[in-house]
Amino acid sequence: MGVEKMDMEDTDSTLMEKGNKPPVSRPPNKYETLFQPCLAEIVGTMFFCFVGCVSVIENVPAAGRLQPALVHGLAVAVMVAVMDNISGSHFNPPFTIAIYLCGGMELIMVGPYLACQLIGGVLGAGMAKMMTPADRYFNATGAAFDILKSDTQLSGAIFGEVAMTCLITMVVLLVAVNGKTKTPLAPFLVGCTVIINVLAG
């Protein structure tokens, strides 16, 4: 009797377990896989360009590079943190291309991402123009505009842009894409890299 009772209890528990099936997860719809990430890229790029442009336009030579460096770095850290699980927080065409080449996204999403980033950048610049006085917008004299004194410095500036873009792209790939080095500190590390780049040149 004792053995039969245990068998009955085991049968009942098995039936109960079969009756409590976990809910079947539905596949993501088109809005979640296409429209939502693209909207996140537009919004993230727009606000990053907006605050970045305003920080440069309203910057004064006395503040040096510190103000735009902190604003750009903190802005990108915040936007990466809040948009990461929606679009991956690219906000920059070189990042999108590099992430695709490293297998971090599908080819079908590269075109829409690039288009959304360009749209977001134009919207952000437009917001900066609406916010700042016309004379300051068209005659910005902050520290970022005082670096190049002659055409002979142009080649060095271009090299610096390429080198610093490679640096931040490498950081993005290592902290946000590579499975061995991916870390929750990605927003902080990317933001710090932006600050370093701006302060360096």
The portion of residues forming beta strands comes to under 5%
* Termini Cα gap: 85 Å
The CATH topology name reads Glycerol uptake facilitator protein
- Can you identify the CATH superfamily? Glycerol uptake facilitator protein
Task: Report on this structure.
This protein has 201 residues and is mainly alpha-helical. It has one domain: Glycerol uptake facilitator protein (Up-down Bundle), CATH 1.20.1080. The chain is 71% helix and 0% strand. The protein is built from 8 helices and no strands. The longest helix is centred in the first third of the chain and has 28 residues. It is globular. One of its GO terms (molecular function) is water channel activity. This is Aquaporin-8. InterPro entries: Aquaporin-like (IPR023271), Aquaporin_8 (IPR023277), Aquaporin_transptr (IPR034294), MIP (IPR000425). It is a multi-pass membrane protein. It is found in: Membrane.
Outline:
With 201 residues, the protein is mostly helical. Helices cover 71% and strands 0% of the residues.
What features would you highlight for this structure?
single chain, 201 residues, mainly alpha, Glycerol uptake facilitator protein, 8 helices, globular
What is the secondary structure topology, with strand pairs?
Elements: H1 2-19, H2 30-57, H3 66-87, H4 93-101, H5 110-131, H6 134-138, H7 154-176, H8 186-200
Helix pairs in contact: 2-3, 2-5, 3-8, 4-5, 4-7, 7-8
